[in-house]
Structure formats: structure tokens, C-alpha cells
From TrEMBL:
Domain Alpha-L-arabinofuranosidase C-terminal intervals: 315-505
Highest taxon in the source lineage: Bacteria
Principal EC category: hydrolase
Family as reported in the entry's similarity comment: Belongs to the glycosyl hydrolase 51 family.
Subunit note: Homohexamer; trimer of dimers.
Gene3D superfamilies given in the database record: Glycosidases, Golgi alpha-mannosidase II
Record's catalysed reaction(s): Hydrolysis of terminal non-reducing alpha-L-arabinofuranoside residues in alpha-L-arabinosides
Organism of this sequence: Pelomonas lactea
Pfam families the UniProt entry points to: Alpha-L-AF_C, ASD1_dom
Keywords noted in UniProt: Carbohydrate metabolism, Glycosidase, Hydrolase, Signal
Protein name: non-reducing end alpha-L-arabinofuranosidase
Amino acid sequence: MKHPLPALSLALSIAAQAAEPVKVDIQADRPGPVIARQIYGQFAEHLGSGVYGGLWVGPDSKIPNVRGWRSDVVGALKAIKVPVVRWPGGCFADEYHWRDGIGPQSQRPPRVNTSWGGVIEPNTVGTHEFMDLAEQLGAEVYINANLGSGTVQEMAQWLEYLTAEGDTALARERRANGRDKPWRLQYWGIGNESWGCGGNMKPGYYADLYKQWASFAKAPRGNRPKLVASGGQELELNWVETLSTEIKDRMAAVTHHQYSLPTRDWKKKGAAVGFPEAEWISTLAVPQTIDGYLAKHREILDRNDPAKKFAIYFDEWGSWYDAEPGTDPGFLVQRNTLRDAVLAALHFHVFHRHADRVKMANIAQMVNVLQAMIVTDKERMVLTPSYHAFAMHLPFMDATSLPVQLAGVPDYTLGKYSIPAVSASAAKSVDGKLLLSLTNTHPNQPLPLQLAVGGKGVRAVTGQLLTAATMDAQNWFDAPDRVKPQPFKAEARSGLLALNIPAKSVLVLEVQP
Ligand code: AHR
């Protein structure tokens, strides 16, 4: 095994060589469902500096930009081929009135963002600006409409404004505001977290409202967005049960949300850096829980929707820690460390495993908020460890999932948590490459692995390794490359390919059988 890590990892590798190797066997002859590239989707809410400052600086800014969107951030996001962006919220979506965000900037009404910090929402970024961002990114558009405090008519007219082709009053208004052709629109969410910030509803009440609203969510043939119903969170199953029973058509997907809180306590979630090992394992245990209840969701959907018309969109996920000291708690600013990168990879493995139903997932959130890809400070930007986890998994977009047989995986146990030390996911990429993603969740113990494809030996692997000296290693403005993928390769000796996966790491490999 060769990797560019220094003496510390060499010592750890030697320690691990004594252990029995974990056997990883990719079942290349048993192709599963395609891993929708939308599983690598993003979420940008009007929250803190998630939009203003982080993405949008305005056309007159000294920070280089294209029509107001900062070029450095857009360039970095293009490099991870952002497949879809959900906007404008979140909780913000259910208080957003689209007419506030069109027309001359000087006439746009300032409002209070009551969901996030009570700050003034200037409405500088509205429909035209967001659609421009999506076009600059080459991303699909997922707009979340306001069911909570809006009206059916308001929603219907927003859709018409976006998509009308003919000479209607709304199409004329759009043209007068600078956009001639209708935009392409892929996904249309009806409400967000309707059980909570979106209106505190019961699932049966929401299902009735959904049917009414979906009846008026109209767009020209060929440009009709997929309609998305707002589902439950965490372990709740009654939302997916009710929605998939009550709603028979005009619903492409039910959403689900789950955040990873180290302590599971919303009042004291746990620190983003300087946390104890107990909070490393408790955070990394969340994807395993998600795996369990996605299986339960699928059971319900398989019973109520055997034809598989309805997908699950996991449109909010990621770590949620105590706010960065000194920041407004309403802005959800937190540092991003190696723990977040491992957490992201574990989520990818779960979403891949359920790829027959999970057709979209959106990390919360894209820039400066919660488990962000990018952090900005005025003209500076830093790519987070989570960004690198996304970049490493690019070849998995639209790949065909493959089962992996794991044998001899030790448990990593601490306190009340116990998770497998090794997690794996394999796929065949669109260009025919055999891919393997691995994590070692143990913070101190490297592990020997032996790779096979269909029981036969592997010749070589090449790829990228992400690890760092500490569990909470972070990229920050003073050290932007502390956590960064390193090239990794290994070759078979005597017909067997053995390698050591370093402690607390993510490894993405192209496998040569
Ligand atoms: O991502 C932050 C918030 O978390 C979203 O606005 C809301 O939908 C969820 O509760």
C-alpha cells in the first residue's frame, strides 16, 4: 500500500497489519438501481449569509461576479457539478411572496426574515436572479412554493410567470422584467416542513391541501415540474404513510428531513470543533439510523405505491452544531471539519443503498450555513472538508449501484453507540469504471482491507484519500488546505490486493479487476 501520509499513519498502519483484513467484495454482476445525480443536490436558503454575501454580492461589488453572483463561489460549485439547487427555503419558503422579488430593484419591498434572525430581507435576489444562478451553475431548479402563508392563486401565478410561453399578462410582465423565454423548471415543492415552521399541520390536513394546490400547479406540456409533497422528519412514518395513501397522482416525491446533532438535543447540540470522541461517534451514528428508517419508508411506499411512482427526496440533511461563538444564532454558522466529510460519505452510502426510492437529496446548506460546501469572508473563500467529500464522489453521479459484501468488519463502539468501523458503497460509473467508496469511522485505528470483485482478485486501485491529523481538523482562512484529498494507489501482490484504510478517513477508488 502506498499513500502520501506521514510517519504517524505509517506507525498506525503497522499496528493494524496484525489484524485480520476486512474483506470487501464488489458484486459487479448484480447491477442495482442508478444513483440519481440529484442525490448530490444542494440547498440555498435566504438565511444568514447563505445567499447574500456568500453567493450574491451584487453587480456593483468589487468582488468579481457575473450579474451579481460571485465568480469564485460559482466556479467552485461548478467544479462539483451541482445537479440541482433547492430555493428559497426551508422555513423561509413559507413566508416568501414571489412578487416581492421581481421588477426594478429600487421598488422591491424590504421585509423581515422572521425565520432567520429577524433581519431585513431586501428581496434583491428574486426569481430572475435565482434562475440566472441556476443557469450559471448548469443546475436543475427546485423551487419550494409558499403553502404556509401564501395562496393557491399566488403559487399558480408564480408558475405561470416562470413557464408561460404565449402572450399572457404574466408572460408580458416577465418579458418586461428582462426575460423573454420561459425558464426550464424541474421540481416544485408545495410547502416545507408543514408539520412545523410551514404551518404546524397534521398529515391528513396537509394531504387535502396538497391535492388542492397540486390541481392548480399548471405549466405547459414539456416544462411541467415534478410536484413534491412535504413529508416528515426523523423517525416519523405517519407523513409518508398518509401522503402515499391519500394522494394518488400529481406527486413525484415525498420529502424527508433529518439533521445530525451530536447530542440529539436541540437546546445544546454539541460543538463543531473541539468536541469529545463521544460526539464523533454519536454524529457518525446518524446515517445508520437513517438507513433503518429509509428501509421502513420503503416498506410503506412499496405497499402503497408498488408501481414506484413516488420517490423520496431527502431534501434537508447534514450536521447541525451549536452556532459559532460570536455569531448570530439565527444565521446557523458552524465550522466544518473532517467529521463532516466522513458524515457526508456515510450519507452517500445510505442514499446509494436506497437509490431505487431516494431520487434526490439536498445537503443543508450550500454556502456559509450549517454543513456548507464553501465558507466566505468578504472577498475570501474556503472549500470545506464536506466540499471535498462531494468532489471525490463525483463519479458516482448517475452511476449504477453495485452490492458490496463485507466480511469481518469490526464494530467501533463507545458508550451507548456502536457503528461498523467500515462502510462501503460500489457502483459502475457512466463511463464504465468500477468505483468503490469506503470510510473508516474509527478515529484511531487504521484497518487492513482485502479487495475482490465477484470473489476474484483485484489488480490495482487508484483514487483519493481524505483524512487529517485530528477528528476536528478544519479548513479555515488561515489554513484553507488542512483537509484536502490526497492521491492514493495500491497494487496487488501475489494476486491479492491488500491495503490499509487510515483511521477517520474517506477513500474513493477506481478498481481495476
Ligand atoms: O436548514 C435550516 C432549516 O432547517 C430549514 O429552513 C428548515 O426547513 C429546517 O428546519
